[in-house]
Amino acid sequence: MNSPATAPHPTSLRSATDAAAGRSPGRTQERPHPPNGRGISTRPLDHAADFPAIPEGWSYLDTAATAQKPIAVIESIARGYSENYATVHRGVYQRSSEMTLAFEAARRRVAGFIGAPSPDEIIFVRGATEGINLVAQSWGGANLKPGDRIMLSVLEHHSNIVPWQLVAERTGAEIDVAPLTGDGRIDLDAMAAMLTGRHRIVALAHVSNVLGSVLDAERAAELAHSVGALLLLDGCQAVPRMPVDVAALGCDFYVFSGHKLYGPTGIGVFWARQELLEAMPPWQGGGAMIDRVSFEGTTYAPPPARFEAGTPHVVGVLGLQAAVEYVESIGLDAIGAHEAALVREARDALSTINSLRLFGPEDSAGIVSFALEGVHPHDIGTILDESQVAIRAGHHCAQPLMAHLGVEATARASFGVYNGRGDIEALVRGLDRVKRIFG
Ligand code: PMP
Predict the structure, then answer these.
(1) pTM of this prediction?
(2) Residue 232, ligand 1, Cβ within 6 A
(3) What is the pLDDT of residues 262-301, one digit of tens each?
(4) Ligand 1: which atom is nearest the Cα of residue 259?
(5) What is the tally of structural domains in the chain?
(6) Which of 278, 304, 326 corresponds to the end of one domain?
(7) Is residue 73 part of a domain?
(8) 148 lines ligand 1 (CB under 6 A)
(9) Domain with 91 in it: what CATH number?
(10) Which atom of ligand 1 is nearest to the CA of 129?
(11) Residues with catalytic roles
């Protein structure tokens, strides 16, 4: 990252807004990005200036880990604390009632964003990790028994593996692992052949955080349902880069994290079909999730409150709504097309580098993983950082996938609405330097 001397970082909202409006130095001037050879423009979607924490000259290519925040989100969080802050659901005073209305309006907005038939099906959680643990502990704890089977895939993030291992240990259920195709997609034909009437749940990444491969979610839902299993989709890497409609996909559970969608950390969404939620027991106890409490016995609130024990991340929910409105104002189709063009351009450029191995399918969504023979990905990441290029290097919380690929780690570049051709050029220049250093 640039030093503060060369990279102005707005320290107040006023200066952030000024920066966006071109009133202070910063990343306000659009750099020239001519259309590439296929006639696809990979210049930024004109949104780089919305992001005060991205200084000019710094290429942020780690959006799959967490997205930078646009001013709209930062301001909504600041407003939440500075203008009308109060807790929700319990206050009898006007401020709290207003905050409750705003909080529930955000729930409706999020429901619309993912095509949920009812806002009561939207549960606010800390993130995808908490959402999957909720399903595993609550639904899994109540429904899995010895002999039952859980279907995962080789490319899952640890947060879609370990919660299932925990509940399998508790219930006696067992885990199966669907293999991948040669180009790094979940092999649904192979999975179809493995599925049996003993499978109760299939839990798969909608988009892989390492390979960017996109699941044929409708087919996965059909396959799961054909044996009487439910389908959970881990939508962490899907919601920031493609329109998602849970009803149209036909899945039963969907989770995602706000921070990968340009929203705040500490807030995410768990969606489930209403009848599944109604039948699920609470997984955490506390305030807000009860109907009546007594030492003789406690009764629980209906969903969504049943699954939201304790004071929620009130302002995080407002920030999440702002993030949803931000991506919708650009359009998920436009974001997807922009990132697809960047991926094509990056893959074309990287494939000309000697001894560079590209992972994942050609049409991956916003994510390009690679390795350079003889150079540890951590060294790639460190040297690129010296060139103001931020990528991720490591196992990406997907160690079984690393084992499958036969590597300890990969380097990963992932894109967002602020990236453009200039960032890919910076990446390629940085990799040239890596190659020179390592001879
Ligand atoms: N699933 C996928 C596919 C992810 O990319 C991530 C984050 N890297 C997670 C789950 C976990 O998300 P969080 O840490 O925000 O809960």
Answers:
(1) 0.91
(2) no
(3) 999 999 999 999 999 999 999 999 999 999 999 999 999 9
(4) 15
(5) 2
(6) 326
(7) no
(8) no
(9) 3.40.640.10
(10) 16
(11) 397
